Amino acid sequence: MTDQTTPEIELSEAQASEFWTGKRKQRFWRSIQAILIVLAAFVMLVPIIWIFLASFKSHVEVYQLRLFFTPTLENYGTVFEEPYNLGAKLYNSTIVAFVTVAFAIPIATMAAYSFSRFRLKFETTILVVILATQFVPAVVIILPFFIMFRDLGLLDTRIGLIMVNLAIVMPFAIWMIKGFIDGIPMDTEEAAMVDGSSRLQVIKNIVLPMAAPGLVTASIFCFILAWNEFLFALFLTNRDAVTLPIGLALFRGEEGDLWNLLSAAGIIIMAPMFVLALAIRKYFVQGMTMGAVR
Amino acid sequence: MAEIRLKNLTKRWGDFIGVDDQSLDIHDEEFLVLLGPSGCGKTTTMRMIAGLEDPTAGEIWIGDRMVNDDLPKDRDVAMVFQNYGLYPHMTIYDNIAYPLKVRGTPKADIKPRVERAAEQVELTEFLHRKPKALSGGQRQRVALARAIVRTPKVFLMDEPLSNLDAKLRVTMRAELKHLSRALQITTVYVTHDQIEAMTLADRVAVMRHGIIQQLGTPDDIYNDPANMFVAGFIGSPAMNLINGSVQSGMFITTGGTKLVGIGGPDRESAILGVRADDMSVHDAGEGDIDVTIYAFENTGESTLLTVQWGKQRVIARGDRHLRKEQDDVVGIKLNPDHLYLFDPESGDRIRMGGA
């Protein structure tokens, strides 16, 4: 017994020292990792922090790189007043983004389900072409859009913008949602069919609930795309249907760049993104990884 | 309660033939097993009965109704899938209740029926859980409960036990058998496991390459195989198939001069089939032939002797108390009542005169 126990202790000591070097090594890399993450976060966050601070500064203070200043909410009032009138733009952006998502997601879901579950003629071709439409630089097609919209009387209307945004977000939505539906086992759907469901009941009772994280992810992605869309809104609107990103341009005037006002408007544009991101962070990560794996 | 009739059923995908012009009558309340290796068309046949696959040609009758054009939901069948096909976003209760809910069963009826089904498969305490929180065997039972919660005309089971571990499989097999006797509903059961087929079936249809090789009771299939494929597929260890020829009533192995009397006309080449259980092990010189032991295995309930027989190896089963060593010489005696002769070209059984 004793003969056997002694070497065991030695062994465990050897293991222990190895264990500690291993742990120390691990700790070293952990800290390197942490430093890199902080660095990356810093690089990404600096402009946002700058804008955030600037939005509470007066016009004069913006140009002074001081960390301590008397914060003011004045900018947030000014941007909603004439001549900037950001409220109307906020309204336009909200309507355009929400209506775009409200139409895009149901239509994209139906398309994605069909692509995922039925074998169609030229299926791959169609799928690739759908995505390829987004590889065309927007600047190239903006003129035909302008002329078409002018003839149809859609220039400077929210409906026009919604249509353009739908064209932009649909391909991504279809591809994303298809990824999620592909991940739902066929067995589950077939079980539901044998259990007595029609195809529509299968979609309603089985597919939609199971694809919910994906639908949320796709909705948010589309919302962000529509919310931030700049180029088409710039060319196709001028007064009534102007959206927030275009509204930013208003603050470049004869007095130069009004950075304090620009910043306040910028924060107003970003705020919903932050709120959304926080609210659905869990779904978003789950959705992104699920789509990626399958 | 219904019988199933398949008439000249065919399924083709392009040039690939899944099921080739097969007809099959499944009796009311019968437990029929479709048995075969993967890709033999057994699952395709079942999926066509369920309506999940459209036949290329032929007719499917359930009871007195041709169901070819009926959607799965209108065929009044219940199916258990290999991967269970549970609804992961619903609780076990809702999983089991789904077939009732979706068919518009009155709410008051649903609860007692779900509880009864859960009781039958011993799941009562798990009803509030989600499938993710259950083990494989429990999930399998949920799938079963979902099938028996209604009283369908037909049960379809697609390799329901193949995802379970070996021990659980044996337990679930017995539960399935008990349940099917109690419910008395026509059942089609697909498996590649010949023991499941033997133990569960009233009748077995052995399939290969989309063709039913033999249809019969487990006894028929085991003791009277129609061809070499069925003979080799059923039984564990597999039936020994020995190459040789028949000369003046004696079977002579390709390797040499070993003789076994079987009768019948001369044949230049033939394959002799004999099960491990139909060979008895004796001391050297006391059997039909003497052979050398290649490997000796003790499985506990019996012993398996792999012996060198001419150029081939053959497995014989010995008494569980038998102890031999590798390279020992033993005598093997064949049971003349259970020898099978096959045509090596076609694989067809050659029926022997009196035997």
What's this, in brief?
The complex is a heterodimer of chains A (294) and B (355). Chain A is mostly helical and 294 residues long.
Number of helices of chain A: 11
How would you write the strand order of the largest sheet of chain B?
6-7-8-3-9-10
Please give the radius of gyration of chain B in angstroms: 24 Å
Query: Architecture of the largest domain in chain A, according to CATH?
Result: Orthogonal Bundle
Task: State the CATH class of the largest domain in chain B.
Answer: Alpha Beta
Architecture per CATH nomenclature, i.e. the level-2 architecture of the largest domain in chain B = 3-Layer(aba) Sandwich
Number of domains of chain A: 2
Q: Oligomeric status of the shown chains? A: heterodimer
Give unreliable regions of chain B as ranges: none
What is the CATH H-level superfamily of the largest domain in chain B?
P-loop containing nucleotide triphosphate hydrolases
| Termini Cα gap of chain A | 55 Å
Please tell me about this protein's structure.
The complex is a heterodimer of chains A (294) and B (355). Helices cover 76% and strands 1% of the residues of chain A. Chain A is built from eleven helices and two strands; from the N terminus they run H-H-H-H-H-H-H-H-H-H-E-E-H. In chain A, strands 1-2 form a two-stranded antiparallel sheet. In chain A, strand 1 and strand 2 form a beta hairpin. The longest helix of chain A has 53 residues, at 2-54. In chain B, a hairpin with a 2-residue loop joins strand 4 and strand 5. With 355 residues, chain B is of the alpha+beta class. Chain B has helices at residues 42-50, 92-102, 107-120, 136-148, 166-183, 194-200, 218-223, 228-233, and strands spanning 4-13, 16-26, 31-35, 57-62, 65-66, 77-80, 154-158, 186-191, 203-208, 211-216, 240-247, 250-253, 259-261, 267-274, 279-283, 289-298, 303-309, 312-318, 329-334, 340-342, 349-350. A six-stranded mixed sheet of chain B has the order 6-7-8-3-9-10, with helices on both faces. Chain B has a six-stranded antiparallel sheet with strand order 13-12-11-14-20-21. At the A-B interface, helix 7 and helix 8 of A face strand 6 and helix 2 of B.
